[in-house]
Amino acid sequence: MKVMTMVQAINDALHIKLTEDPAVVMYGEDVGVEGGVFRVTQGLQEKHGEERVFDSPLAESAIVGTAVGMCAAGLRPVVEMQFAGFVFPAFNQIVSHVSRMRNRSRGKYFVPLVIRMPYGGNIRAPEHHSESPEALFGHIPGLQVVIPSTPYDAKGLMIAAIEADDPVIFMEPKQVYRAIKQEVPEEKYSIPIGRGKILSSGTDITVVSYGAVVREVQRAMITAKAAGISVELIDLRTIYPIDREIIKESVKKTGRLLVVTESPGSFGAGAEIISIVVEEAFLSLEAPPTRLAGFDTVPPLPKGEHFFFHSPERIFYEIKKLYDY
Amino acid sequence: MKVMTMVQAINDALHIKLTEDPAVVMYGEDVGVEGGVFRVTQGLQEKHGEERVFDSPLAESAIVGTAVGMCAAGLRPVVEMQFAGFVFPAFNQIVSHVSRMRNRSRGKYFVPLVIRMPYGGNIRAPEHHSESPEALFGHIPGLQVVIPSTPYDAKGLMIAAIEADDPVIFMEPKQVYRAIKQEVPEEKYSIPIGRGKILSSGTDITVVSYGAVVREVQRAMITAKAAGISVELIDLRTIYPIDREIIKESVKKTGRLLVVTESPGSFGAGAEIISIVVEEAFLSLEAPPTRLAGFDTVPPLPKGEHFFFHSPERIFYEIKKLYDY
Amino acid sequence: MFEKYDPLKDEMFRVMDDKGELIDPKLKPAIPDQDVIDAYKLMQFARTADLMSVSYQRQGRMLTYPPNLGQEAIAAAAGKIMKPQDWLVPAFRELGAYLAKGAKLSDIFLVWGGHEDGSRFSDAPNFIPSAVPIASQLPHAVGIGWAVNYKKEDSVVFAFVGDGGTSEGDFHEALNFAGVWKVPVIFIIQNNQYAISVPVRKQTASRNLAVKSTAYGIPGIKVDGNDFFAMYAALEEAAAHARQGKGAVLIEAVTFRMGAHTTSDDPTLYRTKEEEKMWAEKDPIKRLSAYLIARGLRQESDDEALLEQYKKEVEKEFAVYENYPPYKLEDVFKYHYKEMPGELKRQQAAYEKFLNSREVQK
Amino acid sequence: MFEKYDPLKDEMFRVMDDKGELIDPKLKPAIPDQDVIDAYKLMQFARTADLMSVSYQRQGRMLTYPPNLGQEAIAAAAGKIMKPQDWLVPAFRELGAYLAKGAKLSDIFLVWGGHEDGSRFSDAPNFIPSAVPIASQLPHAVGIGWAVNYKKEDSVVFAFVGDGGTSEGDFHEALNFAGVWKVPVIFIIQNNQYAISVPVRKQTASRNLAVKSTAYGIPGIKVDGNDFFAMYAALEEAAAHARQGKGAVLIEAVTFRMGAHTTSDDPTLYRTKEEEKMWAEKDPIKRLSAYLIARGLRQESDDEALLEQYKKEVEKEFAVYENYPPYKLEDVFKYHYKEMPGELKRQQAAYEKFLNSREVQK
Ligand SMILES: Cc1ncc(C[n+]2csc(CCOP(=O)(O)OP(=O)(O)O)c2C)c(N)n1
Ligand SMILES: Cc1ncc(C[n+]2csc(CCOP(=O)(O)OP(=O)(O)O)c2C)c(N)n1
Ligand SMILES: [Mg+2]
Ligand SMILES: [Mg+2]
């Protein structure tokens, strides 16, 4: 099997869908000629033509808004926000239309749109290049929010996202883009949206995570294992709709939950997952479900980012605390 | 003492600050000549002149963005978003600048801005006129999010908001605007941001709420009392920074928590409050902390809104369930 | 025509004067008399529905309603020019265009009466339901236009916005994309002089709204929006331009909202009786009526029966709305996704449990 | 001047030709020779800093950097026109203007090197730190301009944006407000032909960028941005216009980004050697240098010593940056609010506890 980075895997998924479905078109800032600032769409314009893959003016609201119109006319656009930190000019289109067109028109129009965006930090980038706004999207009815952590999942989830008849906010952990390689089938396959995955089975503690920070959890688990702590690691992969079952079953078994996210804690994904656990597995709990989140701050610029983004040490520290509770 | 509606109480607060501080200016769509679609700024232009209180073009991003500039130049603007459902075009300015200017400039510039917006539903309004996006703001570092539920609190909190050196998202429950009257002092007073209030003491269950739905909780409490359930009701008044202490102390006493909010549940304020309780009072819990939130849907149009907005019956039903747990 | 009436010089295209006399017969578009009569009827029907909506609202039988009064010529002209394959992307004050596109009045009542089912508009293909956030519909129109080009279809997109809407960022972004992408979109600004209480001069310092086309490299024209023929001619040329692959066009239709902004607005707060009177004299229906009567194409006295008939039709439609089946719990949930996610099912089930518990109590 | 060079006809204001010869001596603004020499030096200093930043980045001593190469005349002219009480609201490619406003180069290095402390720019009053989201700074400039009017101050706001930035909604909303509010703001578009890889012709179909002023009722002019004198004259007139209470102005400065977009960009992907060569001949420093040499105001050979001196100055500033005290945990938290809310204190304390636990382990 071919070994791919996440950039290659996503590129591969986009190429497959462009090839098999003429309704799929792709655009955004610098996605055409240049192939995107992270080269995720590299080569796609050459392969599929300027009509299918192209550069748009620099205006996020119109990128998303025009895509809503294309959907109404039967297309399945995939658009890129150059960084998640630049999705906010498009927020009104997302909240008011992408997520609502189906309900507003009672199903007459729907929005099979994928909004791709590299997200997250710890890559020594300038301001607005390290944001993780997934919790905001999770709170908006009508969206699906997908966050792969591996090349394999990224490809399968991207195929599913493009084929979905409802909008998907597809958040790509840019820290992972080229950091890991993995065997990825060249043929088409898809991974269902809304399903988490148990990355390691364990009995003492459930750790729920997603995106780039999953790798840091895996590193922390080496220490945990050495310390005799058996961790069950769940990669959510989809933030909304969330996989309640997989979380519930795991915590019923372990009695302990740690949620690890990179985005600010308050009103964040950790709170949602803790609430689910409290709702579904209260009587199984042996310790307070805990969140290790980013601070309630702007991600600091590179000189300070080591404080903000979780090290395996910090994750292990929280695992240990919970284990010792 | 004068009896005032919330509209009058806020108007009064604005008038006081316009009178005593020339740095305070006010603008937005229809706030000048007309006094706002809800008449909250009625009469202020006559009293303070067109230079201080005026109509702006129809563009939320520029309304907020220009206010950021005014703050840098030493003013203290109060701007209005005509409805909370129309704040989204301004989202980038709020997330990228209002909340960040102080940190970005390391305190050289700061944003003593108040963004007022009528929010919430159950008033038989068209689409986009019933939104409650407070959880989104709660997740954005650098903001303060204030939501009064009574005329008295609205006046005191508005004074505090205008005097605060950091930005305040000031959400006004439009359902309450004219629905209740209360004695409100005519002189100036302020209520600290970040502090909740115990509206009724009780011993069996803590209910945490804020905004318009507080009144429905109070109605439900009549039934609860009749059923012999002693409810402690906390009106948070500020969503961020949240009053951890008041929640913690109450739940430590009652062992039971119900959070009642009108906004969608997933990734909402209820999740945050439940997580706080789990973090602070886990060992005191006698039942799973529970949230009664809006559905994860767009607020239905008026013909269906009775399903979405909580009735006292529904609230009592949840109180009872929790009590019987 | 677009070259002849230069918005930079603030020229306005008119065919009729305020009394319904042709200013220059050569300007009159080649439109069969019967079509003019039909357009007149559409304007009258729209006005009847409009006035009745306001009074239904006063009676407490309708929630809110944005009157079209005085702006009917614009929508009627668009209604006449639009072909079945064309798209309508409305703002919310183009009742005649809705109707021309096939929308049932009962559905329109459902929308304003507070039921999403109205916005399905099953009888009106290629018609996007109103986007309440001002100007946010314009990028949709451009995207549809792009798809039309991509699929090599023969459609034109008619996109409406108000004068206030021109201040929003989405107006700019949409028109800019339209220029670059050369999409077959006609942007129609209904400049009715106010955005709620805010007059155009507080909205922008540009000479007029049509000049804004210069910023996007597309043709723009300022048209007397109360002049049916002028609107018809401008839209006809714009549609031909678009259909020929020449791209987008901006039309500023100068008109006046003779009614309130919505039924909850009070225009006496922000405008004068004189202003209202001045505009009443430019009433588009009066003008077209005078034209038709002068040509012997109809008689003043025809109106009574016509309006009586229209009133009945509107009443019938209103009855359909008032007898619409009640909103069901599942209507809250089931249209958010193609398949309802577990989370929504759970929330619906919890609510049903609560409802059942109430039944048990009773 | 704004009337003379009509952007609708795509006229461009120039004073010098590409060789640094005056096209018409009458066009040359009245600027003392010494000021011209100072401006030349500022351009050279900015270029030195710029080139060194790129090489520091290559050495791994700087994170990322957006080269100004080829655009120096614009910032230098603004630097000369701005008075101490004036405001600078930058995009991010106006190094010379930063410096003219008092910003220390070491602070600029801190910003691009990844430390917020740089953006405090303690030595540069009335200077707003860069807003990374494109065009989002423009409404700030308008708000400052409004405050200037309100407080009856004698300041002008200089607001920068790129060609790509003109597509954003905030560009439109800001210029529209500026027109209505008549604020003393000079909007300067640095049209360097590209937004990363996207050329202007894919950005907008408007004839040029200066014509966009028509949409806002403010004067607009297209200026050769590589011609120091043209930029100086245009900015001087714009500043006078603004200071006289006549409101905002839009200047399109036509230039070319001779370097990469940032140090992580590869321009060979999207532009040709020919294009780069053509623009290299219009290099603003070469042109001003030729002018000065022809007038005997300096000699070609002066540059060597000058650049050597500048290199040293830049090295000194870079050393300040490299020796800047390390980032502390509290630096993450303490600037978010005037007083840190309990929530942040709690989070900081939790992290400190973790750090202490590590100390204990060691
Ligand atoms: C983004 C947004 N902001 C505010 C509103 C509230 N609002 C509804 S209509 C309106 C005025 C619209 O004026 P105009 O565009 O001129 O259209 P008209 O009502 O005159 O037809 C406003 C401010 C809204 N619907 N959307
Ligand atoms: C809102 C937003 N979208 C995208 C980006 C990413 N980005 C940074 S610079 C740039 C191009 C800017 O082009 P232009 O305005 O012409 O300025 P230039 O870089 O040429 O000086 C882009 C797309 C951003 N910073 N902000
Ligand atoms: Mg209007
Ligand atoms: Mg550029």
Short structural description:
The complex is a heterotetramer, with two copies of chain A (325 residues) and two copies of chain C (362 residues). Chain A has helices spanning 6-20, 44-48, 60-72, 91-98, 101-104, 134-138, 151-163, 213-226, 244-254, 269-281, 305-308, 312-324, and strands at 2-4, 24-28, 53-55, 76-80, 114-119, 144-146, 168-173, 182-184, 197-200, 205-209, 231-235, 238-240, 257-264, 290-294.
Task: Record the SSE blueprint.
The complex is a heterotetramer, with two copies of chain A (325 residues) and two copies of chain C (362 residues).
Chain A: E1 2-4, H1 6-20, E2 24-28, H2 44-48, E3 53-55, H3 60-72, E4 76-80, H4 91-98, H5 101-104, E5 114-119, H6 134-138, E6 144-146, H7 151-163, E7 168-173, E8 182-184, E9 197-200, E10 205-209, H8 213-226, E11 231-235, E12 238-240, H9 244-254, E13 257-264, H10 269-281, E14 290-294, H11 305-308, H12 312-324
Helix pairs in contact in A: 1-7, 3-4, 8-12, 9-10
Chain C: H1 33-58, H2 72-81, E1 87-89, H3 95-100, H4 105-113, H5 138-150, E2 157-162, H6 169-181, E3 185-191, E4 194-195, E5 198-199, H7 200-203, E6 220-224, H8 228-243, E7 249-254, H9 273-280, H10 284-294, H11 302-322, H12 329-333, H13 342-361
Parallel strand pairs in C: 1-2, 2-3, 3-7, 6-7
Antiparallel strand pairs in C: 4-5
The complex binds thiamine diphosphate (2 copies) and magnesium ion (MG) (2 copies).
One magnesium ion binds at residues 162-164, 192, 194-195 of chain C.
